[in-house]
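Reply to dn_fold:

You asked what the input looked like. This is it:
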Amino acid sequence: MQQGVRQLVFSSTAAVYGMPESGIAREDMPLAPINPYGTSKLMTEWILRDLAAVTDFRYVSLRYFNVAGSDPQGRVGQSTRNATLLIKVACEAIVGKRSHVSIFGTDYPTPDGTGVRDYIHIEDLARSHLDALDYLRRGGGATILNCGYSHGYSVREVLDGVQRVAGQKLTIREEPRRAGDPPSLVAEAQRIRAQLGWKPQLDNLDAIIDSTLRWERRLLREPW
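and this is what came back:
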């Protein structure tokens, strides 16, 4: 506030929900983060909420679900070493950077026994930030919004998609569940459409995979 900041877009996370019993996360449901990352994001949301309650400060808190994909034109993408995001890991395996892909847990109460997540393309996530800024500049009030597509894909569905798009087979290993992984976590994401007018353009698993794979192939040619 001392620097004159009266509007803010905050990058929050679906981790604030913890493990909702239904697997569907709504902005108004009780929050129960199960790791320090989710807890720290929730604490920041509380700070923003309290600040907005007693000043003219306004904010939009965007709760990201599983961000994936790269720039469709291949200009930028994730180059983090030892990344853990499933689609990136699988695409790294396709191009030979990894020997295999692991499925952590095959006995979840989901249609195929593997975890289900709501994957959102990075381009649509970026667009949500621009829409949030525009919302605040128009005088919109403080709000919290899920950033997801309102539907999910299982780990097996994602890996099948990577193999289909790449035209190659993956070496897949089945491992025990990891502690703290919910069976399913999917956004209820109607509020962001209603409040911001957000219209996702890349809600397509194959498009997400294709952009990631093309980026990984570029990194092989042009290491950063």
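The chain has a mean pLDDT of 95.
Hope that clears it up.
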